[in-house]
């Protein structure tokens, strides 16, 4: 381990946090309203000071070991959440520090779960910061800044792998820095495209930016209580499209851009993703229409509602245009089901990822086959390419951990007699980085009523889900700290 | 420096060393290897791309994007695969290729043939590079590189002129040089000048010398102030590299003793080197070394295939009182450690190859020491045809400009460095050293196509 190199790297990430907290100040100037400026400035100052101390104590020399990478990534996410919470408390927008930490962790992990009971009373710069945390977390705070700003070389490669979701991060350019830049460009382009379309459809610049930040990162923080329903159908379709886009593997877009043909879209995971979306939309639509009876005038609206909620929950964004908590049981069951899947690997979405479910499914089928044909040698392939055994192992372990964490989280969250559905969906909504669940934590509800310790539990679930367990759990192993 | 793309086949020592240094300079590198374990190692330690597969198969080359690369380097452990990969890489669209082969004979005698056949821009032999480095150390030479002409019977050497060298102290006319060699050019940076008798070299310049191997050895000995003729030289190991070193040392050492632990190989060595002492014994046994008088060795060179044996042998030889220890080390990362343990020079074949390729890249792809930046000067080999104006003439009577030198004449397969009263005859092959301005003059004097 090389703590000094580690501190230096973390210091850089913290500096970027300090800079980022100054950006929302723009909205103090435009409609002059300086009530929240102090909070953001204090937040930025605290980050800058801490970053300075880290840089001072650190050193650029020496090897950057794997353990340093693990600590850097986990440390950066926890620190970002803590520092990102400072503006909420300092501006008085959120009273309790635990609530502020929850809100910030929910932002960076692109969860979108909120403890706010009335969002619209908050000043606009604070709401802008809230969506910015999601945008920063979506692309990956560590990778973005470390890969772009410093010369860690192979170390940065490892960081990227730790932070980009999926069983095996695709580094599609031989140099990790180029990969990070390409990812960031795709991310910027998607954000800009969505904001532009929303402005063309009549949104204000502020709304367009805030919603784009929360959509492309699949975060789900909205600055209005009515979330996605704040807009008419055309804008909802734009948001729907960009949620769907952000839930697919970004390397597809890189290949589309560099190869200039559509062959990358034949990717197995991408097709499974679209099939899953289409099937879920179909069933939910039919279920909703059956419930409503024959009212042909509303069919289009119903299908849009179904599609919006399905995509929003599957991509783990968490916007809502309807209160799906009140939907019939079949629809609710399907929605909870897709919460476990999440988007594709290499996207900004949370969840276990489609590719892991495909690999896990094939691994399970292989075990079935081995019960009656013990000498078979079965390779697990995805799209004709063999999946290395260590990847299969990792996938199976991750799915197991996901289920364990969900179960444990659900049990802990029932404390205080909150009802099993509330607790169980709150656990998966935070673990899969979605946001809303059902009943008390449904789209019109919030997470305010949980006990402070339960909010900390949910923060941990959000971090575990975003970093996909292994890096965080490594820090809990005694062996990790042994020399 | 603008970023370039390189594809390196073979993630062994040479490949990874090259990839690391190129990647550190900001270039984009993709490694090819068919061993998944190498892939994991690469992913872990380097910031380069990795393609799993055989470099001599087109799909692998394509997925490594060889067509976009500036240079394809084939340094896997298989010579055949390297050669085939070079040809295929060119077919796929690589700009340039470098191929490494193990043995030296391929390069000394047939280098150009291989390069032409497999469309390689540069053919390297690790063994040859190793031999050169060993000799530099043992004999105190300053050879940067050796080029072979006329099937290996002639050498062109590029030698760095050090402080204390006679060439830097006297004018060329006052230096007593061996007969069968000739100073063709003095190279200072990227300036190439053809020297006259009045010229004197500067310290740090390079001299380009052509001649027979023995004459050039003699030249190096006279020129370098700390070069020496050796008494007893002991070589541990009798493999291919050791044989190449022994061959090059003949005439430089009064006595050569070779330790070889394999009985059959020792007998073969005895047959091959009747004038040298072959000892069948383990060079890591003190008693064996002691009884063979290693304490008198003026140079001890450990060239077995095992790093540990080489180090052990050197330590024992040092203990006995041998001077000038040199050890061959395959695992390059341990070199610094070795130097700490004993007063020895470490020669790593892989590092030598990787550095040679780096030099090729850094010289803006000048494949050979005889190819200069911007084509300032070049070697031309011509057959003398009847219409040539100089056929039958005494060399001294032929008026040639200063930038054109008849460097060698090959007659009936025998190469020699011509003197003023030598005649050029029809049917001879002449090797010309020509500055760019005089290429048309060379064409005029020796009409006809280039020959090999």
List the helices and strands and how they pair.
The complex is a heterodimer of chains A (483) and B (452).
Chain A: H1 3-20, H2 26-29, H3 37-57, H4 66-90, H5 97-108, H6 124-139, H7 141-149, H8 154-163, H9 176-200, H10 205-216, H11 233-246, H12 250-259, H13 268-292, H14 299-314, H15 329-341, H16 354-372, E1 381-382, E2 385-386, H17 389-414, H18 420-431, H19 452-466, H20 470-476, H21 478-481
Antiparallel strand pairs in A: 1-2
Chain B: E1 5-9, H1 13-24, E2 28-33, H2 36-45, E3 49-52, H3 58-63, E4 71-74, H4 79-92, E5 97-101, H5 105-117, E6 122-125, H6 126-139, E7 143-149, E8 154-160, H7 166-169, E9 181-188, E10 191-193, E11 206-211, H8 213-223, E12 230-236, H9 240-249, E13 253-260, H10 263-272, E14 277-280, H11 286-291, E15 297-302, H12 307-320, E16 325-328, H13 335-341, E17 344-347, H14 349-362, E18 377-383, E19 404-411, E20 414-416, E21 429-435, H15 439-445
Parallel strand pairs in B: 1-2, 1-4, 2-3, 4-5, 5-6, 12-13, 12-15, 13-14, 15-16, 16-17
Antiparallel strand pairs in B: 7-8, 8-11, 9-10, 9-11, 18-21, 19-20, 19-21
Helix pairs in contact in B: 1-14, 6-9, 6-14
């Amino acid at each position: 381990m090389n703590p000094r190199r580690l501190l230096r790297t973390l210091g850089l990430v913290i500096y970027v946090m300090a800079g980022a907290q100054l950006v929302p100040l723009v909205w103090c100037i435009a409609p002059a309203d300086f009530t929240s400026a102090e909070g953001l400035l204090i937040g930025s100052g605290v980050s800058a000071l801490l970053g300075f101390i880290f840089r001072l104590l650190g050193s650029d020399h020496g090897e950057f070991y794997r353990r340093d990478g693990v600590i850097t990534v986990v440390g950066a996410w926890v620190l970002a959440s803590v520092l990102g919470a400072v503006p909420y408390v300092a501006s008085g927008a959120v009273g309790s520090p635990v609530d502020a930490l929850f809100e910030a962790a929910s932002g960076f992990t692109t969860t979108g779960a909120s403890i706010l009971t009335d969002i619209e009373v908050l000043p606009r710069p604070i709401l802008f910061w809230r969506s910015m945390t999601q945008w920063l977390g979506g692309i990956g705070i560590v990778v973005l800044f470390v890969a772009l700003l410093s010369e860690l070389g192979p170390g940065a490669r490892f960081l990227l792998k730790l932070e980009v979701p999926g069983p095996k991060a695709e580094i599609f350019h031989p140099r990790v820095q180029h990969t990070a830049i390409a990812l960031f460009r795709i991310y910027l382009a998607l954000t800009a495209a969505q904001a532009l379309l929303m402005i063309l459809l009549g949104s204000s610049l502020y709304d367009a930016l805030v919603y784009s930040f929360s959509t492309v990162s699949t975060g789900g923080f909205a600055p209005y209580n009515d979330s996605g329903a704040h807009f008419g159908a055309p804008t909802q379709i734009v948001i729907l499209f960009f949620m769907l886009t952000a839930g697919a593997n970004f390397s597809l877009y890189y290949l589309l851009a560099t190869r200039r043909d559509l062959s990358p879209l034949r990717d197995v995971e991408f097709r499974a993703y679209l099939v899953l979306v289409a099937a879920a939309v179909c069933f939910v639509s039919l279920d909703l229409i059956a419930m409503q009876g024959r009212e042909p005038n509303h069919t289009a609206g119903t299908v849009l509602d179904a599609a919006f909620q399905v995509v929003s929950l599957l991509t783990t964004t968490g916007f809502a245009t309807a209160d799906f908590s009140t939907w019939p049981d079949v629809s609710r069951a399907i929605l909870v089901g897709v919460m476990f899947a999440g988007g594709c690997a290499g996207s900004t979405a949370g969840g276990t990822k489609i590719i892991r479910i495909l690999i896990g499914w094939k691994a399970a089928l292989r075990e079935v086959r081995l019960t009656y044909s013990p000498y078979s040698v079965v390779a697990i392939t995805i799209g004709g390419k063999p999946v290395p055994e260590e990847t299969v192992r990792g996938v199976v372990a991750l799915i197991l951990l996901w289920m364990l964490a969900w179960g444990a989280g659900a049990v802990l969250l029932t404390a205080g007699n909150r009802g099993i559905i509330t607790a169980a969906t709150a656990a998966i909504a935070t673990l899969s980085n979605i946001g809303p669940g059902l009943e008390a934590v449904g789209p019109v509800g919030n997470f305010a009523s949980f006990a402070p310790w339960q909010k900390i539990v949910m923060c941990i679930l959000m971090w575990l889900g975003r970093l996909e367990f292994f890096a965080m759990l490594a820090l809990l192993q005694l062996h990790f700290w042994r020399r | 420096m603008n970023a370039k793309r390189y594809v390196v086949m073979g993630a062994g020592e040479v490949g990874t060393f090259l990839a690391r240094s190129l990647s550190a300079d900001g270039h984009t590198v993709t490694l090819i290897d068919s061993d998944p374990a190498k892939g994991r190692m690469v992913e872990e330690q380097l910031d380069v791309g990795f393609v799993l597969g055989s470099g001599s198969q087109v799909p692998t080359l394509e997925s490594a994007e060889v067509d976009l690369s500036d240079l394809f380097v084939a340094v896997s452990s298989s010579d055949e695969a390297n050669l085939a990969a070079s040809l295929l890489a060119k077919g796929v669209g690589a700009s340039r290729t470098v191929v490494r082969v193990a043995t030296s004979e391929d390069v000394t005698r047939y280098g150009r043939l291989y390069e032409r056949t497999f469309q390689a821009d540069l053919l390297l032999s690790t063994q040859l590079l190793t031999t050169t480095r060993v000799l530099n150390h043992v004999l105190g030479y300053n050879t940067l590189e050796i080029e072979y002409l006329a099937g290996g019977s002639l050498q062109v050497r590029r030698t760095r002129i050090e402080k204390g060298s006679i060439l830097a102290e006297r004018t060329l006319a006052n230096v007593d040089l061996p007969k069968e060699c000739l100073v063709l050019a003095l190279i200072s940076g990227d300036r190439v000048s053809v020297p006259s008798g009045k010229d004197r070299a500067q310290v740090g310049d390079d001299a380009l010398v052509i001649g027979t191997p023995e004459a050039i050895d003699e030249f190096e000995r006279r020129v370098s102030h700390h070069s020496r003729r050796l008494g007893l030289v002991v070589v541990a190991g009798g493999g291919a590299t050791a044989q190449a070193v022994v061959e090059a040392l003949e005439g430089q050492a009064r006595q050569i003793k070779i330790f070889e632990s394999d009985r059959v190989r020792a007998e073969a060595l005895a047959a091959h080197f009747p004038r040298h002492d072959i000892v069948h014994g383990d060079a890591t046994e003190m008693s064996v070394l002691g009884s063979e008088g290693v304490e008198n060795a003026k140079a001890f060179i450990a060239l077995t295939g095992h790093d540990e044996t080489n180090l052990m042998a050197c330590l024992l030889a040092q203990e006995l009182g041998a001077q000038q220890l040199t050890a061959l080390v395959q695992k390059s990362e341990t070199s610094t450690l070795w130097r700490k343990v004993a007063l020895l020079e470490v020669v790593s074949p892989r590092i030598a190859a990787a550095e040679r390729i780096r030099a090729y890249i850094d010289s803006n792809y000048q494949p050979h020491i005889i190819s200069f930046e911007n084509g300032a000067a070049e070697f031309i080999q011509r057959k003398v045809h009847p219409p040539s104006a100089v056929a039958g003439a005494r060399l001294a009577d032929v008026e040639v400009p200063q930038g054109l030198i008849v460097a060698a004449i090959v007659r009936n397969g025998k190469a020699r460095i011509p003197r003023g009263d030598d005649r050029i005859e029809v049917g001879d092959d002449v090797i010309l050293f020509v500055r760019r301005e005089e290429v048309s003059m060379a064409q005029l004097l020796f009409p006809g196509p280039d020959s090999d």
